Amino acid sequence: MPTGEIILYTTEDGLTKIQLKTYDGTVWLTQDEIANLFCKARSTIAEHIQNIFDEKELEPISVCRNFRRTAGTGASKI
Asked: Is 3 exposed, middle or buried (0-12, 13-18, 19+ CB in 10 A)?
C-alpha cells in the first residue's frame, strides 16, 4: 500500500472542503470529489473521464479503481 499525505483544502467562503490524497506527487480524487471541486454534477465528470479514455489519453486500468458506491436510495452503483 503506497503511503502519501492528505491535504485539506477549504475555500475562502468555507463552503467547499476537499480532502486531497497524494501518492508519489500525484493527487487522487473520487469522481464525487472532482464534481464538488468544480461545482459540476458527477455525471458530467464521468462523461469527461470517458472522453479521455475514448481518445486514449489515459488507459482506465492505470487510473481507475473498480468499486461500488451506494446511491441515495441504498442501491449499489459501479
From this structure: exposed
